[in-house]
Write a structure and sequence with these properties.
Length: 345
């Protein structure tokens, strides 16, 4: 079985794009991380008379949840879920364990730095090479067990971290399966296609802990530059502090407001392809904050990397060519935003 980490090994990054800023020793925003005043015209649009929160908040215990999810996927490619069954004390634990990790001195975190061909560990976002400026961000990526890295960080006290990460990944997997099942039912696709997306056998997932330290000049820094998530579905815990924004054609960058206890769910590239563009592509970014250190936790889920992705067989005129999931991920690692247009049919 090929894993997601093996796919990433084929597209190595340079050290320069992996090592985050040393936030312990920095006073201001260095030139290398100073972005031009971005999106001036779009920010003006944000002030127009629109509801603050465009993204629907869906209660999973609502009998109409499935229809609401289907509508949200078609309109925005994004929604928030509440009453999802993930224990709130586990969410609190993952927040505190993430804080414990990012509070370590930089030189200690760098002991588990992601290797150039690696997929897991501490480091800058994988999208860094596609931007001239650095991001006000540090991350820690986990795929499956994180015990090797945790033992390096806390030789005598690693279990608590690992247990929390394992339990959280388990909960995310269950919730993702539930949501994908609902989404696929609204698409009215075959059982075989449902199995492709939600079978646990060989499916791939990653847990991404994101840290955005408070920033002295937030209007010239960016936490995460605009991107789309590559796999099928992403579940994000915003950590109680606003920062996530998504791009709406004609409306510009809109905030996804924190809703207590909710997860933000967004469509990834593979589901955009499978839905034959019925579900829009969700370009999003994270902005930073002058006074607060924000931590978010993203869970990405995808099908086996050796399987094929293509628009569902129910679509008469497929907009995309069929290819292996690992081929798509490799195109994305090389061409980023262009990857989707390269597979247009
Ligand atoms: O931190 C956030 O709000 C966004 C995180 C994100 O987009 C990601 O990890 O892919
Ligand atoms: Fe993302």
């Amino acid at each position: 079985m090929t894993t997601l980490s093996e796919v990433y090994r084929n597209d190595p990054m340079t050290d320069h794009h992996i090592i985050p800023l040393d936030f312990d020793s920095i006073d201001g925003v260095p030139e290398s991380h100073t972005w031009p005043p971005f999106d001036e015209p779009l920010n003006k649009i944000q002030t127009c008379d629109l509801p603050d929160s465009l993204i629907p908040v869906i209660d999973l215990t609502n009998s109409k949840a499935m229809n609401l999810i289907g509508q949200a996927c078609e309109t925005w490619g994004m929604f928030q879920v509440i009453n999802h069954g993930v224990p709130s004390d586990l969410v609190k634990k993952i927040e505190s364990e993430s804080q414990r990790l990012f509070a370590l001195p930089t030189h200690e975190k760098c002991r588990v730095l992601r290797s150039t061909g690696g997929a897991t560990g501490y480091g800058s976002a994988r999208i860094s090479p596609f931007f001239d400026k650095g991001m006000w961000h540090e991350g820690f990526t986990i795929m499956g067990s994180c015990v090797d890295d945790a033992k390096v960080l806390w030789p005598h006290d690693f279990q608590r971290f690992c247990d929390t990460m394992d339990a959280y990944q388990n909960q995310m997997k269950q919730l993702t399966q539930k949501l994908l099942l609902m989404i696929f039912q609204t698409l009215d696709v075959t059982q075989e296609e449902i199995d492709w997306a939600i079978s646990t056998h060989d499916s791939q997932s990653a847990l991404q802990l994101n840290s955005y330290p408070s920033c002295p000049n937030p209007s010239h820094a960016l936490g995460l530059a605009p991107h789309t998530d590559s796999l099928l579905l992403t579940l994000l815990h915003q950590g109680g502090i606003n920062g996530l924004e998504f791009f709406v054609e004609g409306l510009g960058w809109r905030q996804v407001y924190v809703v207590d206890g909710a997860f933000v769910v967004n469509i990834g590239d593979l589901l955009h392809i499978f839905s034959n563009t019925k579900f829009p592509i969700v370009s999003h970014r994270a902005v930073v904050n002058q006074s607060k250190h924000r931590i978010s936790v993203a869970y990405f889920h995808g099908p086996p990397v050796e399987s094929r992705v293509a628009p569902s067989a129910k679509f008469q005129n497929p907009c995309f060519k069929s290819l292996l999931v690992k081929e798509y991920l490799s195109l994305k690692s090389k061409h980023f935003y262009e990857a989707l247009s390269l597979i247009r049919s």
